Amino acid sequence: MSSDEASSPYDSDSSESSSSEEEQQQIAKPVFISKKNRTESPHQASTEDEDKRKREVLLSKLSTDQTITSEGETNKPSNEDFDGIDDTDDLNPEEEYNAWKQREVMRFNRDQQLIIEKEILKEEALQRAKK
């Protein structure tokens, strides 16, 4: 076998494939444009894109929030769908304090239990090491 006839899986026809790819896809070369000749700055272009995106988001939210029924009435989202801020603070301070205190005690007990379990595991490991 000659070297032309033998081919390995690692051989590639890079010269053939690259030339055909170049013909298929023409890539525009970057062209330098001086500041004097530029019509808009990159910052202005990005803010315009952001404004367009914000408008699209607002329009989509409006269209999903207020759907028009066949009678022509608008269905406003119910309070159950509201994922906003919880503004029920300070309605009953004593009850809130007691609930917080109970949660704090539960956290403390959980942390203490974890510490005790770690100490027990260490003691068992030391006892196994001594044997």
TrEMBL record:
Coiled coil: none
Region (Disordered): 1-94
Pfam family, one: MFAP1
Residue ranges of domain Micro-fibrillar-associated protein 1 C-terminal in the record: 20-128
Biased composition (Low complexity): 1-18
Organism domain of life: Eukaryota
Regions of compositional bias (Acidic residues) in chain numbering: 80-94
Biased composition range(s): Polar residues: 61-77
Name this protein carries in UniProt: Micro-fibrillar-associated protein 1 C-terminal domain-containing protein
Organism expressing this protein natively: Spathaspora passalidarum (strain NRRL Y-27907 / 11-Y1)
Lineage: Eukaryota, Fungi, Dikarya, Ascomycota, Saccharomycotina
